[in-house]
Amino acid sequence: xxxxxxxxxxxxxxxxxxxxxxxxxxxxxxxxxxxxxxxxxxxxxxxxxxxxxxxxxxxxxxxxxxxxxxxxxxxxxxxxxxxxxxxxxxxxxxxxxxxxxxxxxxxxxxxxxxxxxxxxxxxxxxxxxxxxxxxxxxxxxxxxxxxxxxxxxxxxxxxxxxxxxxxxxxxxxxxxxxxxxxx
Length: 183
Prior knowledge:
By secondary structure, the protein is of the alpha/beta class.
């Protein structure tokens, strides 16, 4: 049953990525991190579109690495539906992670997010957050039921990251930065 469920999850991720214009054979991009045991992977899947889009994106979390499959360049006003899969490794002794999408200050880099997350708990807002209270969040219990969260891309730059519970490890795992542009 677990193998069947994992197969369905993989198919859903591939279908979602293909619907967004990705190739199912795209290789994830590994970005250097503060911890060599926790690489970050992101797979850009579409070329920028000049008009707002309705887009599907997916992330998975294995307890150490947040992997993103979806577009990284979006037109302002695009609506992105995010899903999250907490793998069995992420669920071992834990509820898994939440997925958070928040606007960040222009010029923020993924390296900035990785450095901050290496030394601060997930419950602490980074100095580059535009509005720490304005987050789209998919909580583990909802993600584990297959629910999604929708984020409207209004700011110029968004950080997508997995975050573990304050009662667990209370860490954040940056996935990717999404760039938003005008038509």
